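Hi L.,

You mentioned the student needs an example of a multi-chain input paired with its predicted structure. This one should do, with 798 residues in total across all chains.
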Amino acid sequence: MSDTPLLSVSGLTKHFGHRIGCADVSFDLYEGEVLAIVGESGSGKSTLLNLLATELSPTRGGIRYRMRDGAMRDLLAMSEAERRFLLRTDWGFVRQDATHGLRMNVSAGGNVGERLMAVGQRHYGRIRGTAFDWLERVEIETDRIDDTPKAFSGGMRQRLQIARNLVTHPRLVFMDEPTSGLDASVQARLLDLIRNLVSELGLAVIIVTHDLAVARLLSHRVMVMKSGRVIETGLTDQVLDDPRELYTQLLVSSVLVV
Amino acid sequence: MPPHLTLERVSKSFTLHLHGGAMLEVVSDVSLSAGPGECVVLGGPSGAGKSSLLKIIYGNYRCDSGRVLVQDGSETVDVAAAEPRRILALRRSVMGYVSQFLRVIPRVGALDIVAGAGRQGGLDAETAAQRAKELLTVLNVPERLWGLPPATFSGGEQQRINIARGLIADRSLLLLDEPTASLDARNRAVVIDLIENKKRSGTAIVGIFHDDEVREALATTVVDVTQFAAKAA
Amino acid sequence: MTAQSATHTAPETGYNFAYLDEQTKRMIRRAILKAIAVPGYQVPFASREMPMPYGWGTGGVQVTASILGPDDVLKVIDQGSDDTTNAVSIRKFFKRTAGVRTTTRTGEATVIQTRHRIPEQPLGEGQVIVYQVPIPEPLRFLEPRETETRKLHALAEYGLMHVKLYEDIARHGHIATTYAYPVEVAGRYIMDPSPTPKFDNPKMHMMAGLQLFGAGREKRIYAIPPYTQVRSLDFEDHPFRIQTFSHPCALCAAEGVYLDEVVMDDRGGRMFVCSDTDSCEERREQGHRGAMLADTPAALKGESSHV
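Structure written out for the whole complex:
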């Protein structure tokens, strides 16, 4: 267990004019940790995720990341080229809407292979071989390797997104409501897959979800957000079983018990 | 050798915001300890806060005041104040929690569930697989079920999978919340045996057992939790 | 410098030399200079309305108009041929507006405007080839956003280009892109050689002449200066290869040149002949004879034109 965090966030704040996107968020994330950000829509959890993934720039605050060489770097001071390189090698981003996370006109194999080609792999056979392995790992029939995701179901598209992101062995993966909009059984299968991959690969994950069941199943820690602020944070089972704040108690009590 | 577990003046209450901010006192001023090979049995009627106390030790419930000291090798960790990842590390290698309920993991076979828990608890893959088979055998889980996900198993079978999962790794502190409830006499005896073995190997145990037979067989100390009831809030 | 003097044939009156006004030419020349300075980089320019529709080479025509001087000798080809409608009308356009000498001989030309082909005869120092480009952006196929493609060029993030080639191999078993085959220029920018067949890609590499590309509708100019490295993208296990033809040219017996298929009748008769008509004619003048020459239809022998 490394004692330096992988990601260190301090005082992260984003204003949209007079409106607060998120305010004064600080936390550390360590390798292998899964952090769930929960809250209702409009609570600022997606804003926070976009700030962390450097897709938005903050009004205030800092984000530091431990690079593969061990150096802690200030993400906001990095050049765009470096950040983008990080995004397509050491990071992943699984999006709620697969059509934003995949190239819908490119075959499944090409979708998985893109990151490999982006980091300079130039051997077709090996790229295809790796894509093949990853399709297998995310339980997509390998004879679909040349089909485009247009022909895939919602669950398959999400699994393909995961393969596409994990192929470069990232250390940090952002997930934005990866299971919403899927049927319950499809959702269960996807959660199971994500859980296994996360523990197998020792990934650090920041997952945004409004679904407390998803947070409970996948995450070690949870941050509860309301009106752009983190109002409660802690071990996932602690926050969900012993919620302190009124809002968290409300969230927990409005979950159907199954 | 210091005790594996020491509770110092632990108090816990719930504030129910959805019920007009009502305060629900659970336990107050609890102090107890469990050393290597000791089995502290929590006694008292239901509602006295026995399960809550186990959950506080496991870090599942927070406490309002006091310290929950768990020994991790030469280091003493206060669960009440530790960072989440420190608590998770304790759960991986130091303290285990066995309830009567198996939280079902879809699509994973029984044997893999048990062996997986062993690997998570620090066993190498081979040892984990070996121990999983031994445990399922002594717990009388028919071999034909080993490859199947336990979702469809009977309540008793699920419970035995859960016990195997909780006992497979070598942890120095075990928290047991009625692990033998609804087991038949034969399997109850097996479980008593398994726990007795853990005690002999130096594990400290804090448990809740309603069954007198089990309690008498295992307890080195019985602590009546009613003595920790809220003192006039 | 006024351009009107010393022309070989008197240009049409009422137009500035080579149609464009001098200010516009200066603007385009500045873009050309920048393009030469940053090989393969697409320089935006304020493309003008030309008296011909988009798709007929308005980009190439503006580049040609801006570099043309009264002493230049102009050759215009379309699909390798000097006598197709597009080539003829552009040649006529410059004859009328600039009064420059025109030619079909590759060796005689100082400026060659082309659509699709690079002449078979290697270009020398001092010669300029101007390509007409419909879509200059090689990344457009996979990334429709202009803001994003610009960023990809700026940061040299070219993984996408290989995704396109990957898709080709996955679908066809080989890289099926036969024209507009992407190249890397001077080890930096990825460039679309426009609709030129990949057969001609090797000619771009270390060419002694200057190569200019103009896209009128898309308002972009780019360039490859003389003696610049031009590498066609490929995979280690699927290396770049040019098309090969199983027969020599049916008219001039040339081998290792780009051939067009010509359908001769409605009974499946066909032949393969040089796409570069000038090169083919020259070879025939030198006495080379292809297998089909004896019974070639009159039209193809250039004896008379059909209806």
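You could point out the following to them. The radius of gyration of chain B is 18 Å. The first helix of chain B runs from residue 50 to 58.

Best wishes,
N.
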